From TrEMBL:
<dbReference type="GO" id="GO:0003824">
    <property type="term" value="F:catalytic activity"/>
</dbReference>
<dbReference type="Pfam" id="PF14529">
    <property type="entry name" value="Exo_endo_phos_2"/>
</dbReference>
<feature type="domain" description="Endonuclease/exonuclease/phosphatase">
    <location>
        <begin position="89"/>
        <end position="204"/>
    </location>
</feature>
<protein>
    <recommendedName>
        <fullName>Endonuclease/exonuclease/phosphatase domain-containing protein</fullName>
    </recommendedName>
</protein>
<dbReference type="InterPro" id="IPR036691">
    <property type="entry name" value="Endo/exonu/phosph_ase_sf"/>
</dbReference>
<dbReference type="InterPro" id="IPR005135">
    <property type="entry name" value="Endo/exonuclease/phosphatase"/>
</dbReference>
């Protein structure tokens, strides 16, 4: 196995920013995860975003505000990973309590012959297959079983593991599935108690022996290190000596702007 396995942490944060998300996203083991999959995140009432203190290390993927993608993104989002095994699709899913209509949407997304798939989520469904012999049986869970059969998905957590404890009522509704090619690479699927905050759900950690391709580093200019005096002189020397004519057409405006951009780019 790799010295640094690919790590995924999934957690239902109960739409709580200050009590759950702030604590959860400050924990050292969470910061080490390659993917942090959150169900029921706190939603900013003024902007299309959520609580995101990890801007330096993690990219936030949040559902768009409007349209069909927004409707689907509220309960299922996909991330595609480039690995040495090939492309891996990871789905983060949330199915509202008391409903079953959202379970079919991952099936629609899986219909494109994806070979390497992981699905993490709070499904709010009970079944003996993952809840153990004492679990109740929701009729909607049968659709999830069908989905697993159709996509050839293996259940990764141990059946019967408690993922939610609400006022002493212990259930298994937070699940993680993967296709056989990834099951062969699975090292750990466990409760991540060292990442637990004050939610009634428990986080799940997955460790995989896969190598992702490094991201292409985007080169950034060191603006703070720029010699501003030298820059000002260069720009002044390359600007027209006479006042520019009045810009009256879109073409004239574009030409003037492009000329300024060219001067700046040549100097920096």
């Amino acid at each position: 196995m790799n010295n640094t396995p690919f790590t995924i942490i999934q957690y239902n944060t109960h739409r709580s920013r200050d009590v759950v998300m702030a604590d959860f996203l400050a924990k050292p083991q969470v910061l080490k995860a390659d993917i942090i999959a959150v169900q029921e995140p706190w939603e900013n009432p003024y902007n299309d975003t959520t609580y995101h203190p990890l801007k330096q290390t993690h990219e936030l993927l949040f559902r768009p505000a409007q349209g069909q993608a927004a409707e689907q993104g509220e309960f299922c989002q996909e991330v595609r990973l480039r690995t040495k095994l090939g492309e891996v699709s990871f789905f983060n899913t949330y199915n509202e309590c008391g409903t079953t209509d959202k379970v079919g949407h991952p099936s629609e997304l899986l219909s494109n012959n994806r070979r390497r798939i992981m699905i993490a989520g709070d499904f709010n469904l009970h079944h003996l297959a993952w809840g153990g012999t004492e679990a109740t049986h929701d009729t909607g869970a049968d659709r999830l079983i069908e989905l697993c059969d159709e996509a050839d998905l293996d259940l990764w957590p141990e059946p019967g593991i408690i993922t939610r404890d609400q006022n002493g009522e212990q259930t298994t509704i937070d699940l993680f599935f993967g296709t056989p090619a990834l099951t062969e690479r699975l090292a750990v699927c466990e409760l991540a108690l060292d990442c637990h905050a004050d939610s009634d759900h428990l986080p799940i950690r997955v460790l995989l022996d896969i190598d992702t391709e490094p991201a292409i580093e985007v080169k950034r200019r060191l603006w703070k290190a720029m010699d501003t005096e030298k820059f000002d002189i260069f720009v002044a020397d390359n600007l027209p000596r006479l006042p520019p004519p009045q810009l009256t057409t879109p073409q004239q405006i574009d030409e003037a702007v492009n000329h300024l951009i060219d001067i700046v780019q040549r100097e920096v």
